[in-house]
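Revision sheet: structure tokens.
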Amino acid sequence: MTSRTKFVSVSENITYSWKNINVWTQENSSEKNCFSFLRQDNRVPKQILKDVSGVVRPGELLAVMGASGAGKSTFFNVLTCRSKNLNVSAELLVNGFPMEPDSLAAISAYVQQDDLFIGSLTVREHLIFQSLLRMHRNIPYNDRIKRVEEVILEFGLSRCRDTKIGIPGRIKGISGGEMKRLSFASEILTDPQLMFCDEPTTGLDSQMAQTVVSVLRKLATQRGKSILCTIHQPSSQTFAMFDRILLLAEGRLAYVGDSVNAIQFFQDNGYLCPKNYNPAEFYIKTLAIQPENEEESKERVIKICNAFDTSDDKRNLETILNEQIVNVQPENQETNKILKSTSPYKALWLSQFRAVLWRSWISNLKDPFFLRIKILQTLIMSLCVGVIFFGQKFDQDGVQNINGAMFITLMNISFDNAYGTMGAFCLELPVFLREHFNGMYRTDVYFISKMMAEVPFYIIFPFCSASIVYFMVGLQLDVKIFFTTVGIYILVVNCSVSVGYMVSCIATRASVALSIAPTMMVPFVLFGGLFLNAGSVPVYLIWLKYLSWFYYGNEAVVITQWKDIDTIYCNRENSTCPENGAAVLRSLGFDEGNFWMDILALMGLVIIFRILAYLALLAKTFNRK
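Predicted:
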């Protein structure tokens, strides 16, 4: 393996310790609703964890184990400062100093159970993106790329380096094992000295699980990293790779210490592990609460936990924890300073913007579904409208047909593009939240970058669509009028896209967003000026008219096409025929003097809807804290 590049780190070694972790549920937090006042409920908060202490030191691989419901997830959430809606009392120390929650992301790596990626990127592109935002801002770009190549070799990803990660059902990508290794590679880029791994072997076969744990073992022993991981029933070979284990049962410590000494501890308390039996499975089975023997199981757990509280292992643990507080090494004073001052973001705002914009742009270009569907929608819908309204003239029959063609085009491009963006933020929300809370980029950076990456598409596609309809229908052959009309359509599209962003940021799933969209958009269509005369809108609904981008867009394009028409040929007798373009505008309740107000209103709606979308996305980040 190539020699590793020297990178900036908080310190050469990190000892992470926790003392007396106690966690309670918030009283009635999950039961509150608008009818809560009707209940006379005096429930006492339930204690999930009780006096859990421990430590992981440099070069150690610590496994957190326990039966279902033992409190592993809550315990890990406390250690990673991600507990939500819980009352927590704990003392968390890094090298003997109190740990600031906002600084944990800057000094550690967290490999979570679910592998979340932007599937249209290749493995190498994903790692380059991670290096741009995770590595220290003072590291040159060439060194970042060198580090990416080292990590690709180290984790055996060379064969799939230029393969797309993949999206189930849309893009064929890398295997599950490669995806898990990519998760580790993403976190190890910054060479962190403290690592958290949440069920790293979930979904893998025994051989692949053993390979993943061997990588963790190598990182701990050869690089002196402090690694904690939760693991569920590992094989005996995998279990043997762990230096120390922490067993939880009913929210209490059942054992913390060397894995080789655990068997003796259980044997001393009357629980002998059978020969040729997986020790990990034996511990979990012994500490599990069996429904058919619940009382007996609880008594067994209490006995084991009480035995540990009075054991030599517990006294050794308390000695180690006390030494962490008293014997603070001078070289770790820098760690204390960094813990108190470090921002969770390692890259500056502009660097974050460039990186996220780059990823958003190439992910759009490499998503075949996005581009092909947009191209097909643009061509098919535009040609349909063009064929139906082909070759219109500015005469008595053409008035209705031209107005209808322009409004139908307005509707088509609005609905097509709005529905296309309904899942823009919903589908990427899990990825965004994980990367945001890992300290990679700010919410405003993500929102602005994603919008900027999509701006060219929402200029080019409406331009093409409007151009096809414009010449097939036979609208005015004037350069100024053509570009004005197309510009209005582009503004309308971006207003629709803004509504799509807003709905996507408010909704939690794409299916919910698609259900909300018709309810929001159809009323605005009715007030667009074609189905309901603009001058006859009921007073109590006038506010809908002034929020309708269909109204402003329709009035603007109608004014553009008809204001300079001095004469309209009447080809039928005994029927109402407008004499000129001004009469057409009056019949629709439009005013030529409103043109620039319409343009400004469309721009204003674009800004307002996008601000609301951003605030909705920002609220999601606060709700997860």
